[in-house]
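During the second half of the funding period, the structural biology subgroup turned its attention to how the target accommodates small molecules. The most pressing case was zinc ion, which had performed well in the primary screen but for which no bound structure existed. We therefore specified the complex as follows and requested a full 3D prediction, including the ligand pose.
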Amino acid sequence: MRTLSPMTANPTAPSEASSTFPAAQPPATPTAARRLLLVHAHPDDEVIGTGATMAGYAAEGAHVTLVTCTAGEEGEILVPELAHLAADREDRLAEVRVVELANAMTALGVDDHRFLGGFGRYRDSGMMGTPANDKPRAFWNAGVDEAAGHLVAVVREIRPQVLVTYDENGGYGHPDHIQAHRVAMRAAELAADPAYAPELGPAWEITKIYWSAVPKSVLAEGIRMMKEAGDTSGFLAVDSVDDLPFGTDDALVTTCIDGSAYMRNKREGMHAYPTQISMEEGFFALSNAIGLEFMSHEYFQIVKGVAERSDAEFEKDLFAGIAPADGTAQV
Ligand SMILES: [Zn+2]
């Protein structure tokens, strides 16, 4: 893994290390039978919410494509020495987060990553109601159809059978997460329409679409365990799951990927974000220590296609029910 260094973080100027050891280039048209596309808002969202799933499918030979909508310019910075890069100072956090993201992809074994519309096209909009919402390039202000067009190009190139993104509330109400949801859902629709932008390639219909989810029962168990461990500082320091701004009703959650075998990759991926994620203290450190299930099990709600499961059980595979031929039918 490359070490974190803002000096070599300029994405337009490859570092010496990367020119000596060029990153593997994904094939123009992936040949893997199973192709998974994930659309996330900021660097680090992919590893926290879906890191084990990404690592697992990549290890099994699926083509995993991550599209990140913004570079996370407005994030808080947990590394004091890098505090000068903050949005209200030098505004250079993106340079670090792009390197962190590359390191996380290495940890997850995923080699196909893109920024929506290219690096720097859309800017982190900051938390809802903050002045960052109105900055030029803020993703929150992008036209949904315009932004979706960039994603349609990726969908028609990769031809994924499965798309993973957020629910209508973006999971927890962050403007960029809400916008990522809107853009991903619109792109899925447009990509399947042969009349839309034929220059971007033949129409492609995604078979299954999932929204990331954390079941309320799992959150409730998390609250119980965190309290038992004496932690009252994290975001689970509430009395009830209903006091949290996120969580999905259990009845809506259809699918669970048991990522236990890939927790090493997920942890390493989280370690790749020192400016964003503390693994030494706070919520993730403790959840790591007490083995909270929502670190190793990643949950989803199917919203297009059919979950292959019996009533009492979760579907265990995002590709379940998809025949290998589904990947070639529309070439
Ligand atoms: Zn985010």
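Two results from this model are relevant to the next phase. The chain has nine helices and seven strands. Confidence is low (pLDDT under 50) at residues 1-24.
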